[in-house]
């Protein structure tokens, strides 16, 4: 088992009322699964992804990731855990504008304290794999949306994460680029990487081995 959520609640207080973002979520994810999370806007999809990715805290419940009790870990230990094992692909890319493509790709490896020589070779391999060699010295603002998304995916994968969390990974892409990204995810999943994606697209959802539907913070 890779991760398990037990009775997870997350809420915000608004005008003296509790507004639930996540309500009694139970979820077990095995290594090698490919899960699609679907639901209307505001149903809690991104919140769930952020909780799994340890970017968001929750108010009640238990979360175990690789046998580590996330809910009791100190901030630093938790940060190390997700930097070590989790890759994020965001719809809005989250690339650093003042770094080149090459430098953006290097960031996760610096976090993991990968040796210089190994870092250079991993970056070179990744640039090659994603056909980005010709773009390595450009800044994100000089790239098209599709190219930026590709760099975002490449950056998520460069440190060989156990788990990829993708929030609308094809949201800003044309259909051909979107298909390429989904095929890439499928390949990675076949190579053993666990993937959880949030998507509005029925077609993208079918790439997953199971679909989880959310409504008003609840799992249907």
UniProtKB/TrEMBL annotation:
| Keyword terms of this UniProt record | ATP-binding, Nucleotide-binding, Translocase, Transport
Fetch the Gene3D superfamilies from UniProt: P-loop containing nucleotide triphosphate hydrolases
Xref: SMART domains: AAA
User: What is one cellular component GO term in this UniProt entry?
Assistant: membrane protein complex
InterPro entries the record matches: AAA+_ATPase, ABC_transporter-like_ATP-bd, ABC_transporter-like_CS, MacB-like_ATP-bd, P-loop_NTPase
| Molecular-function GO terms, alphabetical | ATP binding; ATP hydrolysis activity; transmembrane transporter activity
Q: Where is the ABC transporter domain?
A: 3-220
* Family annotation (SUPFAM superfamilies): P-loop containing nucleoside triphosphate hydrolases (SSF52540)
- Pfam families the record matches: ABC_tran
Alphabetical list of CDD domains matching this protein: ABC_MJ0796_LolCDE_FtsE
* Signal peptide residues on this chain, from the entry's feature table: none
Entry's family note: Belongs to the ABC transporter superfamily. Macrolide exporter (TC 3.A.1.122) family.
Q: Which PANTHER family match?
A: CELL DIVISION ATP-BINDING PROTEIN FTSE (PTHR42798:SF6), LIPOPROTEIN-RELEASING SYSTEM ATP-BINDING PROTEIN LOLD (PTHR42798)
The name of this protein is ABC transporter ATP-binding protein
- Organism of derivation: Arenibacter aquaticus
């Amino acid at each position: 088992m890779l991760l398990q959520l037990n009775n997870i609640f997350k809420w915000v207080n608004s005008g003296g009322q509790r507004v639930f973002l996540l309500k009694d979520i139970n979820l077990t994810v095995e290594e090698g699964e490919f899960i699609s999370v679907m639901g209307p806007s505001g149903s809690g999809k991104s919140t769930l992804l952020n909780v799994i990715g340890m970017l968001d805290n929750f108010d009640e419940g238990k979360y175990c990731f690789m046998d580590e009790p996330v809910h009791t870990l100190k901030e630093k230990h938790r940060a190390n855990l997700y930097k070590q094992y989790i890759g994020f692909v965001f719809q809005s890319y989250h690339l650093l504008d003042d770094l080149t493509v090459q430098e953006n790709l290097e960031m996760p490896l610096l976090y993991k304290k990968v040796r210089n020589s190994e870092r250079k070779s991993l970056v070179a391999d990744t640039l090659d794999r994603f056909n980005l060699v010709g773009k390595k010295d450009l800044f994100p603002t000089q790239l098209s949306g599709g190219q930026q998304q590709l760099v975002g995916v490449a950056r998520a994968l460069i440190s060989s994460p156990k788990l990829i969390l993708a929030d609308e990974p094809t949201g800003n892409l044309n259909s051909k680029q979107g298909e390429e990204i989904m095929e890439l995810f499928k390949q990675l999943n076949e190579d053993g990487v666990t993937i959880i994606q949030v998507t509005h697209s029925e077609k993208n959802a079918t790439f997953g081995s199971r679909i989880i539907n959310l409504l008003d913070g609840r799992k249907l």
